[in-house]
Amino acid sequence: MLAYIIRRVFQSVIVLLAVGLVAFSMFRFVGDPIENLLGQERTVQDVERLREALGLNDPFAVQYARFLGRAVTGDFGISYRQSRPVSQIIAERAPATLELAFVSGVLALTVGIGLGVFTAIRRDGWAANIIMSVSLIGVSLPTFLIGILLIYLFGVQLRWLPTFGRGDVVDLGWWTTGFLTSSGLKSLILPSITLGLFQMTLIMRLVRSEMLEVLRQDYIRFARARGLSAKSVNFRHALKNTMVPVITVTGLQLGAIIAFAIITETVFQWPGVGLLFINAVQFVDIPVMAAYLMLISVMFVMINLLVDILYVWVDPRLRIDGRHT
Amino acid sequence: MSNLPDATRQGVEPLDRMEPAEVVQPSRWRSIWDADVTWSFRHSPVAVVAAVVTLAMILSAIFAPWIATTNPFDPASLNLMNGFSRPGVPNAFTGESFWLGTDDQGRDVWSTILYGLRISLFVGFMAVLFALVLGVLLGLLAGYVGGWVETIIMRVADVQLTFPSILVALLIFGVARGVIPIEYRDQMAIWVLIVAIGLSDWVQFARVVRGATLVEKNKEYVQAARLIGRKPGAIMLKHILPNVLSPVLVIATISLALAIIAEATLSFLGVGAPPTQPSLGTLIRIGQDFLFSGEWWILFFPALTLLALALSVNLLGDWLRDALNPRLR
């Protein structure tokens, strides 16, 4: 078990170093940093001085090491477009994205598992059939079309919910939250449904097929024969044993939620990190792109690592196998 | 959508474990295989409908200049007075009627959809072709040569697979914008899009081809080819490649749906096809601005077209996967 974890951590570090190399190469070779930092009015001496000050004359490996060292402390340089430290800009935007991702994740998980269990138990009922057909459409609709559809329905036609921005937010000093005001909460509804819908259908279909598999097993039949209540059989015996694949998929989808926040944030003009990244791509703001790449990869690698460890922890069979190999 | 890559990845998974087909005379096996597929096609109404829709869209994209009522890229044919005509209702100023309406500049929505379809399909096909060639070559190389070549290729594939392909495409697009001088950006946008989507999508091909190659390379016909002194390149391309093509075909079809949606998403985000060469995604992006003022048709019809296209290609891919999977026969 311990050897397994150490090996996985080691692999993760290698991946991060590789991504760091990509991010650094972008930073160093796409466009000229000097060109972007100094305006039109500059002298050759200015250029040379800045070149020396930024360490652009050092060997590649030294520059890469310095980049990594700074990145570890959260220093990603200065945005070409906003002329402010990238870390500061991202810190301002992060709460919006994280709150959105959190609500979407909770929504996807609770509704997804709930509907999955329901459709598995009432397999042939009309309600379950309708849910399954609707979910098929949900999977094939592109995220941005779902967002536009919701905006049109609830924003333009019914005028129930706000269609852009975060509403009123409360500033807690280091964190801005939309959870504490009614307009903030209302603003969260449409974007989080848009963002979480795909994951919700995915989890639902997964839970359903796993449940159907498990409900066929002998120990479920035995539990029923013992006279246990349906609730106890369905949730304590059956659902528990579907959790291993659900954990894996949910974990991996967590990363996807954060990445796909880019699209949702653009549709709803949500002032988060994703919108920042899209603007950075449009205006070739390399430091912001590099920082976003690094942050996302740290997040993905951490999630993958946690999922792998959780996997072994949840499924005792893997623990025994791990000891042998 | 854009979420779709992961869904399809799951759907495609069984292919990795696909058993090699039974060894019969190649020519006869081929004809039976063809017949099998045609049989299952005829007996799947969903597949037939999907194929008809897809074919109709491809044909109308190819013949767009002849089907379209106006050329939306020719400013001379546009009349600003025709702007915001409702679908099927004669325009209040000019009396002209457009069956799908017009946008703010008086462009006929029907014609812009046809031309948009052209760009969407072109980008989709080219991106899949690019991903296919790259992925198949790297997969063959990794499977046949092995050693450090395999380690490097598959490591890179693993790392890339951890990231959603839309993110990879966005990054490649951003970097390309930085490298290409400003005056060429719009001209090159379509090609950058193709490379970005293609590069984000080669991993599936490489993994499947590598898996199949590992199985094939120990078979007698490959040993024989090696014995008579054929070069490794020739063995890979002439002997192994034809035998690993059927899963590649399935992935290519599903990838096409994904590529079309990826292109639409990127264009919708404003980092894809430029407004001078609008794809379906660009049209939806433009249409979104008019949604609040009630001109729903500018967005609705391109969105419907995109949806129908993506859905039919997806359904075709699903059917093809089932039809070619020996375990389901």
UniProtKB/TrEMBL annotation, chain A:
One of its GO terms (biological process) is transmembrane transport. It is a multi-pass membrane protein. InterPro entries: BPD_transp_1_N, MetI-like, MetI-like_sf. It comes from the Bacteria. The keyword Transmembrane helix applies. The keyword Transmembrane applies. One of its GO terms (cellular component) is plasma membrane. The chain crosses the membrane at residues 12-30, 100-118, 130-154, 246-270, 290-314. Residues 94-311 form the ABC transmembrane type-1 domain. Its main location: membrane. Keywords: Cell membrane, Membrane, Transmembrane, Transmembrane helix, Transport. It is found in: Cell membrane. Belongs to the binding-protein-dependent transport system permease family. This is Peptide/nickel transport system permease protein.
TrEMBL record, chain B:
Its main location: membrane. PROSITE patterns: ABC_TM1. GO terms for cellular component: plasma membrane. InterPro entries: BP-dependent_transpt_permease (IPR050366), MetI-like (IPR000515), MetI-like_sf (IPR035906), OppC_N (IPR025966). The keyword Transmembrane applies. It is found in: Cell membrane. SUPFAM superfamilies: MetI-like. PANTHER family: ABC TRANSPORTER PERMEASE PROTEIN (PTHR43386:SF26), OLIGOPEPTIDE TRANSPORT SYSTEM PERMEASE PROTEIN APPC (PTHR43386). It is a multi-pass membrane protein. Keywords: Cell membrane, Membrane, Transmembrane, Transmembrane helix, Transport. This is Peptide/nickel transport system permease protein. GO terms for biological process: transmembrane transport. Belongs to the binding-protein-dependent transport system permease family. Residues 117-317 form the ABC transmembrane type-1 domain. Gene3D superfamilies: MetI-like (1.10.3720.10). CDD domains: TM_PBP2. The chain crosses the membrane at residues 46-68, 119-149, 161-182, 188-209, 240-262, 296-320.
